[in-house]
Amino acid sequence: MESRRPLTAPLRRKNREAAGLVPFEGVFVFIGAAAVTALIAVLLLESVSLIALNAMGGQETCRGLQPGACIGDLPRNARVAAVSPAYQGADWADDLWHEERLRGISALEYSPYRIWQPRRASGKYLNTSTIAGVTYRATPQPNCGEAPRRTVWMLGGGAVWGMGVPDSLTIPALLARELNSAGAECFAVSNFGVEGYNSNQTVQLLLELLGTGQKPDLVVFYGGFEDAFCAHSRPERSHCGAVRIQQLQQADWRAQATTAFARTNMGTLVRRLRGSASIVPAAVTEQEHFVPLRQSADLKAAAQAVLDNFESNVAAVAQLEQAYGFRAYWFWQPTVFYAAKPLHPFERELQQQPEAAIPGTQQVIRAVYDEAKRRAATGRFHFSAGILDLYPEPLYIDVVHLGPRGNQLAAQYVSGAIKQSRKGSRQ
Fold this sequence. Notes:
Number of strands: 9
Largest sheet: 5 strands, parallel
Shape: globular
CATH superfamily of the domain at 94-240 and 282-426: SGNH hydrolase
CATH topology of the domain at 94-240 and 282-426: Rossmann fold
Distance between the termini: 112 Å
CATH class of the domain at 94-240 and 282-426: Alpha Beta
Order of helices and strands: HHHHEEEEEHHEHEHHHHHEHHEH
Strand order of the largest sheet: 6-5-7-8-9
Strand content: 5-15%
């Protein structure tokens, strides 16, 4: 007997169609066709945008690349830094920025309590090491021989990490050279700087490092700019400019979609069409994350709050000094916003870029730095914002990060202060 099953399926399909129901097969075909069409359209738009970008040429030029080639593949501050005249005569700059490009916008990864930390890196000029889950920048270590070995940990933000310079030309690496120049003792300096870290995060990192059982002889904190920049962050936003981390935590799909679009050729083309022909690449607006502080009372209150928090961290570390037997030094770093040095045209333009993105930036930074200068008179930390003021050559690669010569001057200042303090303590 023949089975009726082959007749049943067409009959049911006919009944569904008569009832006005679309069969599942048709839905899937429609969805598949729409997805393929959308994908083709996106690829077409991306290709057209890339062609347009290549045709537009080089408003933005990165080291070692043809004009316009670096657009969109580096964070904003890195695109600015890559064109700095502070690299004049640096034959390693092209290769270094190639490695920075490979790090790109994925240079950081999530870290509990500290929110983020560097991803591991291995290259000719940019390398990391890891201890107990803490990733940190590699620093050339001295051959101590028979000399007494002193362990130095240096913590801070991107200026300590050394964005835009090789492992051997970061402030910690140059500090090691300066400290070891006398030869009586051997100083092994480790670079625990992390891009974007404020003093809260550096103290948390110190606690984690002490928890590994290792004990330093000296701990050097070099920062302040990140704390100052947080002064006009919206109170309800807890991540102080770490927008991508915040978006992931809060599942802000609209912001994530906007960020994803900004990384495409189409997004880059839109930025280029809206940008200027400035020698410094145009900034990406983050106004919605910050509150303009126009009134002097607001500026003063914000500055005081930043320094209250900073000094509470200094006091907390002072307690750790007693418990763990190390000596801590704090240095408030320079920035182009507070510079009294003769400015190169590139540095003058650096001052204006954040102002276009976040109005009031200079006012806020200067107010915090004024307060820091006033409080540094107590001797709890060194106000070193003026250490570059006598040097007319270009030293900055962005508003706070320095090129190799600037890092050398910073390391000399820090080393001199440490040597003077240690000499005084022996007398």
